[in-house]
Input
Amino acid sequence: MIQPADLPDTIAVFPLPGALLLPRSRLPLHIFEPRYLQMLEDTLKTPQRLIGMVQPCPGPQGTGDELHAIGCAGRVTQFSETEDGRYLVTLSGVSRFRITREANGFTPYQRCDVSWTGFDRDLGRSEADDTLDRPSFLDLLERFFSARSLSTDWEALKDADDELLINSLAMLLEFDIEEKQALLEAPCLATRRETLVTLIEFALRGGSQEETLQ
Output
């Protein structure tokens, strides 16, 4: 396991709208743009093999070059190369971070100086949600999935531990960038579940018609 002292001051960041990574969760990525292929090659040469997933946000002119301040770093734990030079990668979530500034350099991808302060819990063991009313939560999910014509393995959801259940849904269900950011920034698992419930209830009331599984 990565220890706090092992976390670097500067990491490569991958701005990808809607792609949410959470600590102790896994995110599959399909990397094919030349600048991000270079990012992956450079990352694999580092001891920690960390890539920071971060949500972009519109800049002053709506350019989308601005980044949200908080992201989550993942360690490259699996990768394979296709015949045409693309990479299929799995990131395992390590810890959230706060961007302090964009790092100087000449890489084709963005690198940022980051602070890990305030996210000590991310490096610990799995969280539990002691206030989770699982039958009520699953009933809400069933109504949501039915309204969106989605399917899932309900037995697996019933048996999943709290963190796997809540974080997997937060990552897989399609919400907009600001909603994904709210799920990322939730200080604890119970707060993330409360945020998730609010977003699902809002969608069921007609707040959005686009929630589907990625």
User: Anything to note?
Assistant: The chain is about 30% helix and 25% strand. Confidence is low (pLDDT under 50) at residues 208-214. The longest strand covers residues 87-102. Residues 134-204 form one domain.
